[in-house]
Design brief:
By secondary structure, the chain is α/β, with parallel strands linked by helices. About 55% of the residues lie in helices and about 10% in strands. The strands form three sheets. Strands 8-7-6-3-2-1-16-17-18 form a nine-stranded mixed sheet, with no helix packed on it. The chain has a seven-stranded mixed sheet with strand order 9-10-11-12-13-14-15. Strand 1 and strand 2 form a beta hairpin. The relative contact order is 0.07.
């Protein structure tokens, strides 16, 4: 494996360590892993030491570059963690929204919308990498079919366009060099015209490198070409966190490794058709396995039919991409119209393959790996690719099998020595609260908001819980508003809780109806909140305080019928309030004032002035206040009057817009606080700043 490719692997590892994981202790581990990979690649001992040193230096360089703060506009941060890939793209575009490339991408998107109508969201994903208009259900369907990587511009269409141009030059009997120059120039113009998405840049650089080397009659290594193309978009570290870029690089690496394996194992005696079919199957299997960790970590599924669906969809994509190129690059007219109509037919065929593959029972089991399990699977994917290319693949094959086994087994391992925890998950302007028992089971209240093309349940809450392991025992709906139940249906489909508890206030939001439908499909038991009801899950005890059915029957605002529940964890009491407002607070005060005393208060309605009255705050008398809120939100939450009220009572306030996700660990008289900005402890018996 060329040194340049190994150096790129180290650099990417450093970027991901600094930008995504943010854990300095992993730097040495990643560097050592890269050095080991270099040594295991079959180079001589001396060269192995040089390669290891190069990888370590590249890893450290990636850490340094990835640690540089990204300047993102306020609207990017206000999205919260609901879509990490959208945040990465937003940060990548910070300060350049009026740039030439951004204007080119917007112009291409407008042209796509105009020419493709209902199919425009799919075409925008395939051409400019904009998946925002594809709704969650559609994306989940392609994930179950094993074709989700094709929804993001993968660079494949750039290669297909280049091949089509080379074929056209050959048909026109142009000199070979002239045809190659025209192909490179046209591809460069095309990539610029669609806004230069990172996967397309990678593919264009790879194509240019191959054609230049062939024209100069120089030998090329596919791994070196891949490394050159992969490093080209990394002028911005945020690109390394983009799912489209990750799938593009992983898929291309799998293609190279799968082709190398096919050349070794497919006999030459079976004929060209059989050889091509066997090669396609091998490459599809390798690509499915290599991209499985990314797909499982992002979408919570592993598509077992991926190799077959990819084999069927690849010819359609091979015809579709040149047609999309023609439809976009040609002015409106008969030829562009024919290309557009043909593209519609192929898109229907592509969707049909996905629908049939996704409909097969047990074809895509739910798999939400923890970080450790995902890391094992990533190591397995690397070992698989090395095994495909190595002369002695046995050891690498064993490592690969063990890693993929870890992906399946580790989520089932119970937690040992844990304590109860509260996780206030950063979902932007919304709520998502998870209580963890000492046995690792979860009680979840709300699942954040929904937006066009996605929701916080699928993008943030389910992956957050899955990476930490454990099943969801209970899911509680605070009230049927989109910023609280927008991601609930996705969470129910992914995690299948044992029980759903609902305040019983009938909401009209589509996300609330989808939540009830998802609970019905999954056969999850449902019950309404009953004040005074106590529920124990391991060592966490819940006592429901509101709403009462008689109280809620005459209400016209769902906020006033919010679920209020007192949770007892490790001897500490935590009051969860949903979006309860002053009238509901007053009702609860009139019922059981003594039951409201708690060490921790989740401030209602994101800190709105309609909630957290002085009388209610005096009754709760908390040591710590938590506010889930999006940065620079249009509502002005949290309200200054509420913050002043908390400050006057010397109650420390932790906010997700300032600290990200907040974790409280309950150890007897001590509450440990962990946020992105630091760690400290709070004594239950003393009030004031921790």
């Amino acid at each position: 494996m060329p040194l340049f490719c190994l150096a790129l692997a180290g650099y990417l590892a450093g970027l991901l360590c600094a930008s995504a994981l943010g854990h300095p202790s992993l730097v040495l581990l990643l560097g050592m892993s890269a050095a080991a990979l270099a040594w295991l690649s079959g180079v001589s001992p001396g060269a192995g030491r040089s390669a290891g040193t190069l990888c370590l230096l590249a890893t450290l360089a990636g850490v340094v570059v990835g640690s540089i703060p990204l300047s993102a506009p306020a609207h990017c941060r206000s999205a919260g963690a609901a879509d990490r890939h959208a945040v990465a793209r937003c940060a990548n575009a910070a300060g350049a929204e009026e740039s030439t490339l951004e204007r080119a991408r917007e112009a291409a998107s407008r042209r796509i919308d105009l020419r493709f109508g209902p199919d425009a969201p799919m075409v925008r994903a395939l051409v400019v990498g904009d998946m925002s208009a594809i709704d969650t259900a559609e994306r989940d369907l392609y994930a179950r079919a094993g074709l989700v990587h094709m929804l993001s511009v993968s660079g494949l269409h750039v290669g297909i366009v280049a091949m089509a141009l080379a074929l056209l030059a050959s048909v026109c009997r142009l000199p070979l060099l002239v045809g190659r120059v025209l192909a490179v120039a046209t591809v460069a113009l095309y990539v610029a015209a669609i806004g230069a998405p990172p996967p397309a840049v990678r593919a264009a650089v790879m194509i240019g490198a191959v054609l230049v080397c062939r024209s100069a009659q120089r030998p090329t290594s596919p791994w070196s070409v891949l490394a050159l193309g992969a490093v080209a978009p990394l002028f911005s570290p945020a690109v390394a966190l983009d799912l489209g870029y990750q799938l593009s690089v992983a898929g291309t690496a799998a293609l190279v490794a799968g082709a190398a394996l096919a050349r070794r194992v497919v006999p030459a005696t079976i004929g060209s058709v059989g050889r091509g079919l066997c090669t396609g199957i091998i490459i599809s299997v390798v690509a499915t396995l290599v991209t499985a960790p990314l797909v499982a970590l992002t979408f919570g599924r592993v598509a077992l039919l991926g190799p077959i669906s990819n084999l069927l969809a690849d010819p359609i994509m091979g015809l579709l991409q040149p047609l999309l190129f023609l439809a976009l690059m040609l002015p409106a007219g008969a030829v562009a119209g024919v290309a557009t109509d043909a593209a519609h037919a192929l898109l229907s065929g592509f969707h049909g393959i996905a629908s049939h593959a996704a409909a097969v029972p047990f074809a895509a089991p739910v798999l939400m790996p923890s970080w450790i399990a995902a890391a094992c699977a990533a190591a397995a994917a690397v070992a698989l690719m090395v095994a495909c290319c190595a002369e002695r693949p046995a050891a690498f094959a064993i490592v690969s099998a063990a890693g993929f086994a870890g992906l399946l087994v580790l989520p089932l391992v119970p937690r040992i020595g844990a304590v109860p925890e509260l996780h206030l998950i950063d979902v932007g302007q919304g709520d998502a609260i998870a209580l963890s028992t000492s046995r690792g089971r979860w009680i979840v209240m709300d699942a954040g908001r929904a937006w066009r093309g996605g929701d916080a349940g699928a993008r943030t809450v389910a992956p957050y819980l899955a990476r930490r392991g454990g099943e969801v025992a209970v899911f509680i709906i605070s009230h049927p508003h989109d910023d609280h139940v927008g991601g609930a249906a996705s969470l129910l489909r992914a995690m299948r809780p044992g029980l759903v508890i609902d305040p019983g206030y009938v909401g009209l939001a589509a996300s609330y109806r989808a939540t009830l439908a998802a609970a019905g499909v999954a056969h999850v038991p449902w019950e309404r909140v009953r004040p005074g009801r106590r529920l124990q899950v391991d060592d966490v005890v819940l006592e429901f305080l509101a709403p009462d059915s008689a109280w809620a029957s005459g209400l016209h605002d769902a906020n006033l019928a919010s679920t209020m529940v007192m949770a007892t964890l490790g001897g500490s009491r935590v009051l969860l309030t949903g979006d309860a407002e002053a009238p509901e607070e007053q009702w609860v005060l009139g019922q059981r004032t003594e039951a409201l005393r708690a060490e921790v208060l989740k401030v209602a309605h994101h800190g709105s002035r309609t909630s957290t009255t002085s009388a209610f705050l005096n009754a709760v008398h908390p040591r710590l206040a938590l506010i889930s809120v999006g940065a620079a939100n249009v509502y002005g939450h949290p309200d200054a009057e509420v913050l002043d009220r908390l400050r006057d009572d010397t109650i420390p306030v932790l906010r997700t817009d300032q600290m990200g996700s907040i974790v409280l660990r309950f150890r007897g008289q001590v509450i440990e606080v962990r946020t992105a900005t630091g760690r400290w402890t709070l004594n239950r018996s003393r009030r004031g700043v921790p």
